[in-house]
Amino acid sequence: MGRIIAIANQKGGVGKTTTAINLAASLAAADMRTLLVDLDPQGNASSGLGIRKGTYPRSTYHVLVHGTPLESIFQSTEMEALFVAPASRELVGATMELSQEEDRHQRLERALAPVLDRFDFILLDCPPSLDILTVNALIAAHSLLIPIQCEYFALEGVSELMETVQQIRRVRNPHLEIEGVLLTMFDERTNLSNQVMQDLKQFFAEKVLSTIIPRNIRLGEAPSHGRPILLYDIKSKGAEAYIRLAKEIIHGTPKGLGARSERPVGDS
Ligand SMILES: Nc1ncnc2c1ncn2[C@@H]1O[C@H](COP(=O)(O)OP(=O)(O)OP(=O)(O)O)[C@@H](O)[C@H]1O
Ligand SMILES: [Mg+2]
Questions:
Q1: CB atoms within 10 A of CB 40
Q2: Which residue owns the Cα nearest ligand 1 atom 10?
Q3: CB-based neighbours (< 5 A) of ligand 2, an ion
Q4: Which of 7, 14, 17 to mutate for ligand 1's pocket (most ligand atoms within 8 Å of CB)?
Q5: Is 231 helix (H, G, I), strand (E, B) or coil?
Q6: In degrees, to the nearest 5, what angle opens at C-alpha 104 toward C-alphas 18 and 258?
Q7: Which of 30, 82, 109, 262 can bridge 140 by disulfide, Cβ–Cβ 3.0-4.6 Å?
Q8: Per-residue confidence in pLDDT tens, the chain, 268 aa
Q9: Burial class (CB in 10 A: 0-12, 13-18, 19+), 234
């Protein structure tokens, strides 16, 4: 059965989509059958893997709102083991359209059930909010991967995200784990990045993944070529980091389980 990992942080621009694209590609390169589900109306995960807007008739919007079977929207990619369920602008309206539906929070969970056995990993790229789309992802997921950018206010909104996780555990998905906290856009030359790393390690303790994603210009360029970093510049530091992350996710154990309080150290 595939492991479903939601990639979420309601703060914008922290590296969620970059991580979704490149972790998915690195998992596929390690022969893991991988599905990337794009839940962001911006559709950057889809276009970043070369799936051009307007070339597909149905998207995750149709899956969530109209009950279209998920597998009917799969798009293949340049990598044999990697498939994408693309997003479209229409997703913007999904929250409103679903607001009266009693099962609005479980739509994705239900859509994923029939395809679970076809994949080793299913990654969910979430939009920068804690709306119905992200809640669907957290209910469907086995674990949550939280990218955090190494900058001022890195922890902004994190308490709210952790509260949402607690709530979802109480109400719908008691087994939701924290896959890990991923430091992104790390610049080892700056004191700031190093300071933020220390703060995050204090805050999240052992939940911080040992792989750190450096700030790397090639990672920023790759999406405009519709390719993951592995196919754009395999020798780059960015590619190296995401390959290491894939290994850590394949072999590592989820962080922060057990009887200990789920609250990060220092969270109040
Ligand atoms: N490690 C990195 N090095 C350099 N640039 C990066 C890196 N990670 C992400 N970027 C760039 O930073 C910007 C934001 O990244 P990304 O789109 O992955 O964040 P996001 O959290 O998905 O954003 P949103 O909240 O809008 O969905 C993009 O232009 C991306 O190319
Ligand atoms: Mg994004």
A1: 23
A2: 220
A3: 16-17
A4: 17
A5: helix
A6: 65
A7: 109
A8: 899 999 999 999 999 999 999 999 999 999 999 999 999 999 999 999 999 998 999 999 999 999 999 999 999 999 999 999 999 999 999 999 999 999 999 999 999 999 999 999 999 999 999 999 999 999 999 999 999 998 888 888 888 999 999 999 999 999 999 999 999 999 989 999 999 999 899 989 999 999 999 999 999 999 999 999 999 999 999 999 999 999 999 998 544 433 333 434 433 3
A9: middle
Query: Among candidates 216, 256, 209, 255, which has minimal Cα distance to 239?
Result: 216
Which ligand sits nearest to residue 12's alpha carbon? 1
- Which atom in ligand 1 lies closest to the alpha carbon of residue 21? 18
What does pTM read for this prediction? 0.94
CB of 48 sitting under 6 A from ligand 1:
no
In short, whether 229's Cβ falls inside 6 Å of ligand 1 is no
* Interacting residues of 196 by C-beta distance below 8 A, sequence separation 6+: 150, 151, 154, 183
Rounded (10°) angle between helices 237-251 and 16-29: 70
> For residue 217, which atom of ligand 1 is closest to its CA?
4
- Backbone phi and psi for residue 36, each to the nearest 5 degrees, phi listed first: -110, 120
Nearest atom in ligand 1 to 126's CA: 27
For residues 242 and 23, the answer to whether their CB atoms sit within 8 Å is: yes
Q: Which two three-digit tokens encode residue 64?
A: 């969530």
With a 6 Å cutoff on the Cβ, whether 27 touches ligand 1 is: no
Q: CB of 41 closer than 6 A to ligand 1?
A: no
Cβ of 10 less than 6 Å from ligand 1? no
Query: What pLDDT does 152 receive?
Result: 83
